[in-house]
Amino acid sequence: MKVTAGVFAHLLFACGFLVFIAMPSNKYTWMQEMEPSISTLPADDGFADRTIFTLLLLIVIVAAQLGIVFTSESKKEKGISIVLVLVAIAAWLLRFWQ
């Protein structure tokens, strides 16, 4: 596989993973940080939009990493890409699946 395509796929993974971490699962989570006595958060109408966006981002990330798996000749690079795919899926499921 060309080095530039591999670097692009890994950079895409890093940026997408940062979006997963930065995007809140509820837009009102900052309220609990400011006032810990708030036990339940208000309803979040935009939750489905964030979930769909991050799911599409997950699909792009997984497709890029699977491209590395299918085109790479190195077993080490294939293994790393498979682990990254599993990490991305697990992070998305833990963060956005309810």
TrEMBL record:
Transmembrane segments annotated in the record for this chain: 51-72, 79-97
Record has Transmembrane helix as a keyword: yes
This chain belongs to which protein, by name?
Uncharacterized protein
Lineage, highest ranks first: Bacteria, Pseudomonadati, Pseudomonadota, Gammaproteobacteria, Methylococcales
Q: Which UniProt keywords apply?
A: Membrane, Transmembrane, Transmembrane helix
Give the species: Methylocaldum marinum
